[in-house]
Amino acid sequence: MHKFPSQKEIINSVIKGIETAKNNFTYWTADELFLSYAPAKFLTIHISQEIAKLENAPEIFIDATVADILRCSLPSRRDFRDFMKTKYLAQDIMCLTLDERFEHKSDNDSISRVIMSIKNGVRNVKEEYKNEIEKMCKMIDREKLSDSTLDYGLFAFYLDISNSARKKSEQRIEEIIDNFDKIVSSYSNLKSRFEGGNVKVIPNIGEYSIGCYIIEPNFK
After folding, report:
1. Are 122 and 180 within 8 A, CB to CB?
2. By CB neighbour count within 10 A (0-12 exposed, 13-18 middle, 19+ buried), where does 199 fall?
C-alpha cells in the first residue's frame, strides 16, 4: 500500500488546480470571461490533475456515490445502508473522492480517505452549500476514530466578483465560513478550519479568491 499524501499536499494541490483552471479559462476565452462562467467539472478536472502529480498520488474518483464511499470506509461493507438510514443521508454524489492506492484483490476492497465538494462561482451563502457541509459532516462524524477510514472532507471553491459589487470578497468569505462553522459546531466529534481565501485583484475588472474549508474528526 502506498503512502497516502499529507493533508497539506492535498490542499496545496486543490488550490493550485483551481488557480490553473482560472489561468487556462482566462486564456482560452481571450480574457473575456471569469472562471465562474465555466462548469464546476472544469475545476474538478484541474484539481484531479494536480493531485495526480503527487509522488504518492491516491486513487482519484469523480462523482462517486455516497453509498459507494461509505461502503469503502465503514468497518463492514454491509453497514452503509443502515448508516445512511440512521444519519438521514440520501443517495447523492461527492465531486471528488480520494482512496488508498494499492494492488486490488477484487473490485470490492477500496478504502476511501478523503471526500470533496467543489463549487464554482461561490459568492453568497446558499442552502446548496450548507447542505454539502451537512452531508460531509454526517459522513465523517463518528464515536471512535476507527469507525471510519475517512480522514477529512474539503469544501473547495472559487469566488469572483466585479468592481461594482457592493459586498467585497473578504466579507463574503467571512459570512460563508461563519455559516459553515455553525453547522460543524453542532457535531461534538468534528472540527473545522479554513485555508486559502487570499483575495487577488484583477485591475479594472474585479477580484477573485480560492478557498478550502476543511472538516475532520476531533479526537484528542
Report:
1. no
2. middle
* CB of 192 closer than 8 Å to CB of 180: yes
Q: Check the CA dihedral 29-34-38-44 and report its sign.
A: positive
- Tally of CB atoms within 10 A around 142: 18
Tell me the per-residue pLDDT of 155-179, one tens digit each, with 9 for 90 and over: 999 999 988 888 999 999 999 999 9
Cell of 154: 474539503
Q: For residue 44, what are the contacts with CB-CB under 8 A and spacing of at least 6? A: 62, 95, 96, 118
Q: What is the pLDDT of residues 49-98, one digit of tens each?
A: 999 999 999 999 999 999 999 999 999 988 999 999 999 999 999 999 99
Asked whether the beta carbons of 151 and 113 are under 8 A apart, the reply is: yes
| Nearest alpha carbon to residue 217 among 126, 131, 115, 83 | 115
Burial class (CB in 10 A: 0-12, 13-18, 19+), 90: exposed
128's CB contacts (< 8 A; 6+ apart) are none
- Cell digits of residue 165: 459589487
